[in-house]
Amino acid sequence: MLREYRDCLRRGEITSRALTEKALARIGEMEPSLHAFVTVCEDTALSAADAADRRIAAGDAPLLCGIPMALKDNICTSGIRTTCASTMLDEFVPPYSAHAWERLQAAGAVLLGKTNMDEFAMGSGNETSAFGICRNPHDPARVAGGSSGGSAAAVASGQVLYALGSDTGGSVRVPASYCGVVGIKPTYGRISRRGLIAFASSLDQIGVMTKTVEDSALVLAAICGRDPLDATSADRAVDFLDVIPHVRGMRIGVCDIAGDATSAAVRDMYARVQDLLRQLGAEIVPVSMPSCEEAYAAYYLISACEASSNLARYDGIRYGRAGKGNTPEEMFLGVRSHFGDEVKRRLLAGTYALAAQGRAESYDRARQMRERIVSHMGDLFTRCDMILTPTAADTAYPVGAHDEDAIAYRYCDTFTTVPSLAGLPAITIPGGTDDGLPLGLQIIAPRFREDLLYRAALALEEAIGYEV
Amino acid sequence: MKYEMIVGLEVHAELKTRTKIFCSCRTDYGASPNSQICPVCLGMPGTLPILNRRAVELGIAAGIVTHCAIAPVSRFDRKNYFYPDLPKGYQITQYGEPLCRNGYLEIPCGQGMKRIGITRIHLEEDAGKLLHGEDGTRIDYNRAGVPLIEIVSQPDIRSAEEAKAYLTALRERLVFADVSDCKMNEGSLRCDVNLSVRPVGETAFGTRTEIKNINSIAFVGRAIAYEFDRQVKILEEGGVIRPQTRRYDEDNDCTVLMREKESEADYRYLPEPDLPAVAVSGDDIARVRDGLSVMPDVRRDKYRAWGLSEDYGRILTESRERADYFEQAAACTHHVRVAANLLIGEILPRTGDAPIALPPASLAEIADMAGDKRISNASARRLIPLCEDGRSPAACAEEENMMLITDEAAIADMVRRAMDENSEAASQWIAGKDKAKQALIGGVMKISRGRAEPSAVSLVLNRIAGK
Asked: Is 0.90 surpassed by the pTM of this model?
């Protein structure tokens, strides 16, 4: 789609301004029911569109120039407030931009706004946002998924052509699955994390949400690469653009998902896609994935521990909510009460798991599990080229369904945490529907093999022929 | 009962880097509050640390000069605690895998030397500074992110004297290796003391207290002496030592309680996910080693071999600049001791710690002229300020008529004139009265306006008297 828009813009059939105005109108119309945005930046969007139009007219326009898009509200945007959907940062305007946004801005991207999310990206339903729940465009009674729910909903509802999210344990892939869009969490290190407000630094990775697989690769290509200011970013060339869609001769690992609380529709979809792959000439290799429960426990503990450290900086002194009190302790306690319940829960869990008393049984064990998962996945990739799983166990759940049922709530991430823990690239594409609600299909590849992911995802996209 | 003290020291030294350890802010001392800060060292959301490789090199240098093993791979961790001067709510430090381990320093002990073990040296970032005022407390974050090394000694120290000797040796090595300024008054070197006591002969350790942030070597000695007496007194009165954090009160020369340590603080260490492991290759170590200055004890051995006293050695190695200056001069003169005398007796009292204006080659030239008796010692002293602007000492000595007369015929002529002018002294001298010699020498000096070389004058006089 992006290439078609680019061509239309170049031929002068449409202007960026017109596209942007149309998108803003659509947002204005849908926002009251959808709530995909925390902040809509109408003025800056229109002036960016005008600048893009001049650039296009001058014949100096990269692919993404003039295309309306959105950023998850934990990606820093200089001069535009960046809240992490938290009261703690509700007036925080960073004086710097994230590396990914710097790259897109240089390419002429038109930012329509900052999208809704779970507070500090903690959640899988976009229900913990301090600015209200983001609804699923396919059924407003259901969640969009989280934590990048706003980005998924904005893309799925046609408000923007693409959006960036962030993925720590499934936060791009779960909402993409629930909203029926393509979502990629690239290899850890593929995209600079500079300017992405940290939740769990060893897991966080910016991801891309689009309508099509091709668009996913195009946007990823525009933002990936080594950033000298992120020591964990990798110096890897873009080798995944314009790959030939095929799976012939490829060994695709599949696993037994019957025991994983998956719905019948998910199991059907999974079986159907395996048949499809066989027809396309792939070899289906049964594999056993690391235990989902173990992976989820490791993910939960490690991310909570890192969060307890990363979120310690919100002390009310330098930015964000101002602290008050007669002693530092009073001030810290006062200002940190602004965190929402889910954030507090995870900070408490992480603090406990790192403390001497609980550490050996929780944090240390979680890290050992993570190491086992990394080596387990390494072993699997000696026997297959990619691994196919459902993305989530079911379709989007009704808003509020899990408030009393924290465990199930947390289980939504299940199939997505293994690639996060191992730093592997994983993509979700729409794989089918259940009662009109999208189901996602996840493909996992070895580190830095986004080329394989896109090759298979393009082939499946075509074969599934799924249209929302 | 007789007690002994068990002391271990933790020393923090600010590294002499131009910029901070994880961002490019400057580290200048004394800059106005919060003028050297950026989003990274303020710990703003989304910012990431980038390791300053220069800090690693200086850490390696510290390890080399303290005989440590340098780890091929070391790692950063987060030490989590809340305090207003700590921007991120954690300090980036090295916990499990420090940069250097297992070193030692040798200190003088009785007639010989004693080894004080060094457990580890690790890299970390400094915190900001609280400025308490009448209208409340303000925070200066300039220091936040300044690179530090922490040097942890083994509990090998048994007296205040040993502690002071260890600190002196450590300090001069870090200074000569250009690792740190080690200015305790500016806080670029800070020392925490861990001290316990036990009856002599006992092998188990007693309960220790920690005395924090002592800001001079002399105060470290006094704090240790006080704390030892305090603990011994408690034990002798049948009391128990409680684990405490104390501080040294300079005004009253005692240690005072800061807080009880009911349990060890739990810093919830976490591997720093934003920084990859620090890799140090053999080549890296070799490069740092090649760039290191000669250590002060090695220099003092050399000076001793040149015939200089221990005191001279100590004074000349008080700073690296001074020792380098001296050695540059020494390399150009046959009269090293004269050069040392002039430096210590004339130059240093005038310049103190400030840079020396006189070029070292000029000091060497003056030392040679004085040593070869071409000019008098008084002239040598006078030449120093005259040549600070780079004038040639030889030319200057000529111009100032400082060159001594050594020509025998000329001196003999002047001696005759002096004897003519003071015939009484002359006849006494010839008659064998030694006392008369001074008067005659004085006469020659008067005639020569001080330029007759005294030993040549004496020689001529002796010959006349048949001595």
From this structure: yes
Give me the amino acid identity at A21.
E
Residue B181 shares a structural domain with residue B219: yes
Q: pLDDT value at position A412?
A: 56
Question: Which helix (DSSP H) or strand (DSSP E) does residue A13 occupy?
Answer: none
Q: What kind and span of H or E run contains A183?
A: strand A182-185
Q: Is A211 a residue of the active site?
A: no
Same domain assignment for residues B393 and B451: no
Closest C-alpha among B52, B43, B56 to residue B21: B52
DSSP state of B19: B
Instruction: Write down the pLDDT at residue A468.
Output: 39
8 Å CB contact between A168 and A193:
no
**Which of A86, A97, A147, A192 is labelled catalytic?**
A147
pLDDT score of B142: 97
User: Does residue B199 share a domain with residue B250?
Assistant: yes
Is residue A425 a contact partner of residue A419, using CB atoms and an 8 Å limit? Answer: yes
ipTM of this complex? 0.95
Q: How far apart are CA A23 and CA A15, in angstroms?
A: 12
Residues B214 and B86 in one domain: yes
Full domain range(s) for residue B318: 294-399
Say how many domains are in chain B. Answer: 3
H-helix segments, B83-159: none
Is residue B162 a contact partner of residue B107, using CB atoms and an 8 Å limit? Answer: yes
Map tokens 């900052």 to a residue.
Answer: A114
Shared-domain flag, residues B358 and B436: no
From chain A, pick out residues whose CB is under 8 angstroms from the CB of B46.
Answer: 74-76, 82, 94, 96, 98, 194-198
Residue A147 falls in the annotated catalytic set: yes
Shortest distance, CA B340 to any CA of chain A (angstroms): 51
Position B467 scores a pLDDT of: 72
Return mean pLDDT, chain B: 93
Q: Would you say residue B287 lies in a domain?
A: no
| Domain closes at, from B253, B282, B311 | B282
Q: How far apart are CA B40 and CA B350, in angstroms?
A: 45
- Most distant CA pair in chain B, distance: 100
Query: Which segments in chain A show pLDDT lower than 50?
Result: 467-468
Nearest to B124 by CA among B231, B33, B15, B216: B15
Instruction: For the beta carbon of residue A225, count every other beta carbon within 10 angstroms.
Output: 17
Which residue in A309, A315, A359 is closest to B80 by CB distance?
Answer: A309
